Amino acid sequence: MQPRRAVAVRRHHQTAHRRGPRRPPARSHHMTTPAPTATDPARGMRTALAHQLTDPADPWRPALEQVPRHLFVPSFLEQDNNHRWRTVTADTPDYWQTLYSDRALTTQLTDGTPTSSSSQPSLMLDMLHALDITDGHRVLEIGTGTGYNAALLACRLGHDRVTTVDVDPDLTRTAAARLAQAGYLPAVHTGDGAAGAPHRAPYDRIIATCAMTSIPPAWIEQATNQAIIVTPIGWGIARLTVHHDRAEGRFLPGEAYFMPRRTPSTPPDFAALHHTAPRPTPSTAPLGALQTLRFPLSLTIPGHQWCTWTNDDTKAVKALGLWTPDGSTAHIHADGTVRQTGPRRLWNLVEELHEQFSGTAPAREEFGITATPHRQWAWLDDPHGPGWDLPSTTTT
Ligand SMILES: C[S@@+](CC[C@H](N)C(=O)[O-])C[C@H]1O[C@@H](n2cnc3c(N)ncnc32)[C@H](O)[C@@H]1O
Question: Best exposed site among 41, 178, 295, 327 by fewest CB in 10 Å?
Answer without folding.
Answer: 327
